Structure prediction request, 555 residues.
Amino acid sequence: MLQCAKQTAPTGGPKDETPPKLRASFPKHKQVNFQGDRIELSFDEPIQLNNPREQIIITPSVGKDFEVTFNKNRVTIQLKQRLQANTTYTVNLREAVQDLTEKNPANEKIAFSTGTYLDSLKITGKIIDAISEIPPKSYTVALAEQSDTFNIFKHPASWITQTDKKGKFALENLKPGKYFLYAFNDKSKNMLVDSKSETYGFISTPLDLTKNLDSLVIRTFKADLTPLKLMTARQTFAYYNLRFSKSLQEFSLSAVDSSTQVYSILETDLTTLKIFNTFPSLDSIRVRVHAVDSMNFTVDTLLYVKFPKKDATKDKFTAGITYANANENNSILSAQLTFAKPIATFNPDSIYIEIDSLTQLPFATTDFSWNENKTRLTISKKIDLTRLFPKDTAAMKRPGIKENAGKEQIAKPTKPIPASPAITQMIARPKTFISVEGDSSGILNTPIKYITLESTAIVEAEVKTNSNFIVQLVTKTGKLVYEVRNQKKFAFENLPPETYQLRLIADLNNNGKWDPGNFSTKTEPEPIIYYHNPKGIKDISLKANWTLGPLLITY
Prediction:
């Protein structure tokens, strides 16, 4: 008696899974010659509203220039602007109207016309992520009448809808005409595409709508079309930092005085270039800067780089061996070392393979290769594995081999060859590497992992296409493992047992990389086609000692 009455669900009984049903509407569904400014909807049970100004979509768009109220089982939409003459409108409630107990959404829709007839054409399709093929959820799909001046970043569309959980969409009650179709995740809720923060996609060719169009596919991508800018260039502690407005795809720095070497690294945020002070005797130095983003926007500029005379705190220098593997399949020892700062000098004679305390194998200078800014060293050496692992010579025979009168009879492998003992390792002595700031490395060592044929798998593939292409083998999470260009028959070998995916990039401009779409040039993203097995599954689960294929990809 001290509280107001509240509507609540009764206890007990089965769970309510039935959404509210539309019992009546004003105007009626498919009514013509409607001239009102108010829409009323009645349902078969008490309801509640869920963010109606965001969830209710009226097309052609009236923006958010309407108010929504409800009373028990009735919803009223009060329009604040006059509807266009001779136009078919649709009102899609989506999840705005829900029941009181389990919040089941009504998801009802009505159509009416302010003219003498109801437009009836329809466009259906789906959207997928251009790289992963996964259908994004709850994207806005928009349709605008074709115009040379229409811009998805500046102008809202007239017809909009939302995708379902499978990425499918339907735009209904459309009139004949030419349209531009696109989709985006409208994070800002302003019905405009923000290329800096939102993923979007479009069909570049105008749609000539004279009959129903179905099975359209919009591939969404992330592409920031704002110009690349150099935001700041200033000394920060012991370094000179260049901060850009966007992530960099590639860059180069060079001194105008060609006798001076400029060392730099791209920070993990991909927007900041750090320049090291390798010319302390100079007051300043003129540096040419060339930077490129993923959309091929460039910055080319010339600036003066100046460091303070007083000492400043420098970053810590770290170095490590990422991996060191000996592969039975090709008798190649491969290794990689990474460094927190560019390396100025290193002593190749101080890097070697230690088999035991008395046996060491050196590397040749041709075995080493550096990345452009000298922060990553790759080693590749052809080697006799029986020499590398002398104590494992007997174990290196295939499991299942039987000895009989001095002759080997090969049986089916039963288990992988065990890894080599930790005594066989790669070592870099202290002070092998000296950074551009004079830091010296400590001792680096790691056991060499012996990779056998029986412990790995092979994927063979074949491509049928007349276009330039790139084939990539990636993990299930999208990490690139291997790639080849314009090879129609090939094999990816030495693969650890894991789940992979095989995909083809149609390299339409033959630049050796995947290019996202560009609205300015009305260019869609380069197609990516995944291999699917006969059951439609793209995951490739590999086990040790397997050879799978040839897998066929056609484009």
Notes: Residues 266 and 273 are 5 Å apart (CA to CA). The radius of gyration is 32 Å. The chain is about 0% helix and 45% strand. The longest strand covers residues 121-129.
